Amino acid sequence: MKNFIVILLMSLVFFSCKEEKKKPNEEFIMYQSSEMAALMNTIYEGNMTIKNKILQGELLGGFLETYLNIYSAVLTNPANRNASFEAFSKLYIKNMKQVYSGSKDSLKQNFNQAVNSCIACHKTTCIGPIPRIKKLLIKLNS
Ligand code: HEC
What is the pTM of this model? Predict the structure, then answer.
């Protein structure tokens, strides 16, 4: 029964990450954001806010529990949640927590390390958004 559901879900997927470049119209009609894609957009915005706070020297607040949803959010292609995906998720969460708990002197480095762990996972699962994610990186001599 479980396998049946998985196969059913997979056959319902019209849109996988690699097909991201569709004609705008087609995309508008066909694209249904997965839970994971929605979460990713939330953490992207969240990290852009963190980047700006770091650059302005503002306090970051606390680690956002929403980030932990990476362990459970439903992917466009549920088969992508394999051992490697879990490992990259853990690395990302660990690095993200380090941003909040690490020393102030290494804040920029720690933040970049977290962003690099987004990129590391994306290289294995979803290369489309990498150029966008790179915009989060903080130039260290700025
Ligand atoms: C463990 C792997 C992994 C990590 C870590 C990860 N991502 Fe993703 N990301 C994915 C996958 C897989 C998708 C595609 C989701 C889907 O299609 O359901 C995705 C999708 C996205 C998208 C596109 C969303 C959309 O609307 O299609 C953006 C933007 C994104 N991620 C940014 C980030 C940022 C920023 C980080 C780090 C703060 C990050 N990701 C960390 C795996 C990861």
Answer: 0.83
122's CB contacts (< 8 A; 6+ apart) are: 129, 130, 133
Q: How far apart are CA 2 and CA 82, in angstroms?
A: 16
Whether residue 132 has its Cβ less than 6 Å from ligand 1: yes
Report whether residue 75 contacts ligand 1, using a CB cutoff of 6 Å: yes
Q: What is the pLDDT of residues 55-103, one digit of tens each?
A: 999 999 889 899 999 999 999 999 999 999 999 999 999 999 999 999 9
Per DSSP, 43 falls in state H
Site to substitute for ligand 1 among 122, 130, 133, most atoms within 8 A of C-beta: 122
Does ligand 1 come within 6 angstroms of the Cβ of 92? yes
Among positive and negative, which fits the CA dihedral 118, 84, 96, 116? negative
Distance CA 54, CA 48 (A): 10
